[in-house]
From TrEMBL:
SUPFAM superfamilies documented for this protein: OMPA-like (SSF56925)
Name assigned to this protein: Transporter
Pfam families: Phenol_MetA_deg
Organism: Candidatus Filomicrobium marinum
Domain of life: Bacteria
Length: 295
């Protein structure tokens, strides 16, 4: 069954708009619209640092105009569950980086690239079966905040954005890069539940060309996360994610995730996290560690 998750999320976001409000009224501080990539936002007007990692749930907030933020997965490891033939796959991810550039007060451009990775497949009967390594795909993304960029934080406030993306293969044969071109859309939404608790919700889809049939298939993605601020520096999150209508014969991929974030200062954040698969199609385990830095 195909579900219009994007439509449902748009509807949910409109329900939490202030009574009598409009998209223009909640889009943010109009005085910041004068700033751009070529006329950077002054430091004293910049928003608090917000990252799109470590959880899989993207934030609806953009980078202030004229500034950049680099978010890097220093090291990640994932191990799949064994398939019906007894094979499993171990993946090592090194240095995957998202470079986020503030273009306007409400829009940013992203470039995501994995400089190196290793994919190793093994069998219960024969041991290691194959090993590939090399560079990963390049993702080009744009994020447009529709409301909440500068007015988010008080109880009941919300934020909403659109995040279209394309994935470009770099090496179709190394098993690290995507094998073909794909494109999709993520719709990030956030709601402030209390002074310490935040809620994030993503819905979206990705369309990928099938190698077997040369036709495109669509996979639907939904994630939800709750964050908690223990102190001004230390935070944690708890997440669930589902990928629907995948081409995996084992069905939908469902995972649970948790992690910690630590703000070294107003422009630097460290993080560590762990995802655990709860369905056969999801990776069984996925620990990772990363760093984010704003400039």
């Amino acid at each position: 069954m195909r579900i219009n998750f994007v439509g449902l999320l748009v509807g949910a976001g409109l329900l939490v708009l202030p009574v009598g409000g409009s998209l223009e009224a909640v889009a943010g501080d109009s005085t910041k619209r004068r700033y751009s990539f070529f006329a950077p936002t002054p430091d004293h007007l910049m928003r608090d640092m917000s990252t799109d990692r470590p959880d899989a749930t993207e934030s609806p907030f953009t980078i202030d105009a004229g500034h950049a933020q680099v978010e890097t997965n220093i090291f990640g490891f994932s191990r799949s569950t064994r398939d019906s033939d007894g094979f499993r796959t171990d993946t090592y991810e090194i240095g995957t980086t998202n470079i986020r550039i503030g273009v306007t007060s409400f829009a940013e451009l992203n470039l995501v690239w994995q400089p190196y990775g290793v994919v190793q497949t093994s069998s219960l009967l024969s041991g290691p079966a194959s090993r590939s390594s090399g560079i990963g795909s390049v993702d080009i993304r744009g994020k447009i905040n529709l409301w909440g960029n500068d007015l988010f934080g008080d109880l009941g406030t919300s934020a909403f954005a659109l995040l279209p993306f394309v994935t470009l293969p770099t090496d179709r044969s190394n098993d690290v890069s995507a094998a073909g071109f794909s494109a999709g859309l993520i719709v990030p939404f956030a709601l402030q539940l209390s002074d310490k608790i935040g809620f994030g919700l993503n819905a979206g889809f990705v369309s990928t060309k099938s190698e077997e049939t040369s036709s495109y298939r669509t996979e639907y993605l939904v994630t939800a996360a709750v964050s908690y601020e223990w102190t001004d520096r230390l935070g944690s999150y708890y997440e669930v994610g589902v990928a629907f209508e995948t081409d995996d014969p084992r069905g939908d991929a469902v995972f649970l995730g948790t992690g910690l974030t630590y703000a070294v200062n107003s422009n630097t954040q460290l993080d560590i996290g762990l995802n655990v698969g709860v369905s056969p199609a999801a990776d069984r385990i996925n620990p990772f560690i990363g760093i984010s830095r704003r400039f």
